[in-house]
Description:
With 237 residues, the protein is mainly α. The chain is built from 7 helices and no strands. It comes from Kushneria phyllosphaerae.
Amino acid sequence: MTFWSWMFLMLGMATCALIAVDVRRRPQHMAVMNVTWPITGLYMPVLGWWVYHKMGRAAPAYVGHESPTGHETSESHDSHDGSHHHHDDKPKWQGVFVSATHCGGGCTLGDIVAAPLATVLGFTFFGSHMAGHFLLAFLAAYAFGILFQYLPIREMGERSPRRALMDAIKADTLSLIAFQIGMYLWMLIATPLLLDGRMDAATPEFWFMMQIAMLVGFLTSYPANWLLVNKGIKHAM
């Protein structure tokens, strides 16, 4: 399984890098998405580029002005400040999909930080290394998830820091829990069957399983994001 682990991990990193390079030229209207989209590529190898291109790619930063060739671009009719997305009329399912990637970005970043810590520290919870890993992953994912919600709310400048924090907690808690549940379910299956019962963040096999777990988490968070959007707690993006 080592070969397949490295292959999909490398594809994920390549997708992440490709999106990151493109985002620098085409910055997102919401700054946090400049980080979220590359992270999405990590757990959606290859597919992540298609999703970004279809649902999130913004117009080039020089749109509405002269391009490096000295000519105005044909996309200038879609945006005058270079930051507006040219898929503003995307259907609701796509808007919810992008909202789920927003949640997934914070969760994934938290898990990437927590997993090595759990391995290095040998952290356990009630004597279980797996439970210890899950606890650290949840705490880190929750912190990053709330941060990813808080920053764009504050960016709009319409709420006080306290109100923005409360709104971020309301908007992200359910979707984050749903995301983590999906991840945990997959790792509960994969650890004994494919990882010899060990959650070792120093191995490519572990990260391959985490890559799949993040994708499963994204799928389980989608219904939660749909519900939050329907209730008006969260906006489709």
